[in-house]
Amino acid sequence: MIVIRHPEVGSAATAAHYASKPVINAGDGVGEHPTQALLDLFTVVEALGTLSGLKVAMVGDLKYGRTVHSLTKLLANYPVEFVFVSPDILQMPKDILEVVQASGHKYTITEDVHDCISDSDVLYITRVQKERFTDLAQYEAVKDHYVVDPALMERAKQKMIVMHPLPRVNEISYAIDNDPRAAYFRQMRNGMYMRMALLAAVLGKA
Ligand code: ASP
What we know:
This protein has seven helices and seven strands, in the order βαβαβαβαββααβα. The protein is of the alpha/beta class and 206 residues long.
């Protein structure tokens, strides 16, 4: 088996085309991160018991964040509602929005997280992907656009979760870490279990 993380979009697919062994995409540049999507989905179901009818807000760098690309495509198979929250220059790529649209889902695009904080079931926030910017001044301008802090969490539902693929930079205040709605450390642990299961399945040992 080959597990490949590579800076180029499509690199894992190219490897899979030529390799005689199974290939797992562990992140191809700004493209996709499918194993993260699996563990994200598992984390939501574990925490909220269902996917049906959930309002999922994805917040932050939706342009370069590969985890939100894969998660959106995966969630488009389920009856959820999407809200995409980002600065204008970091909006969700068109091809991903097309998948959402083609699957008949409702979605909203906004720059303001306050538009959706009070009725979201999942708040999935990402770091701004500094390494993808060619102009660092642009990164500086947007890097602290969203911060999940106690004031924001006061407006959120009691039964909801905050997720993050980690590593976090400044976008979630440490004061949230002990809030029962903070799911990001459980999410990380689920990543280990999910990948163990995936390796076992690919090796025929599941
Ligand atoms: N760890 C995630 C990834 O590999 C998220 C991130 O780096 O921000 O894409």
